[in-house]
Design a protein that fits this description.
single chain, about 60 residues, alpha+beta, Alpha-Beta Plaits, two-stranded antiparallel sheet, 2 helices, 4 strands, about 25% helix, about 20% strand, globular
């Protein structure tokens, strides 16, 4: 699985980096930045799914 992030949808709520700080961080303006590219481990996939499920703007998704 891989993280797909749509920067245009992100509003900077910060839930992704609060829930999955190993996978996401914030830029200087408070918008999300994906820290991990490529295939995720099982643990990372679970954390990324949690972040995606809690993104109010649906800016995060996972793809195989």
């Amino acid at each position: 699985m891989r993280i797909v992030f749509d920067r245009d949808k992100c509003q900077g709520h910060g839930r992704c980096y609060a829930l999955a700080g190993d996978l996401f961080d914030a830029d200087d303006e408070g918008y999300a930045v994906v820290l991990v590219t490529g295939d995720l481990t099982d643990a990372q996939t679970a954390a990324a799914q949690l972040a995606a499920d809690n993104c109010p703007e649906y800016a995060i998704s996972l793809e195989a």
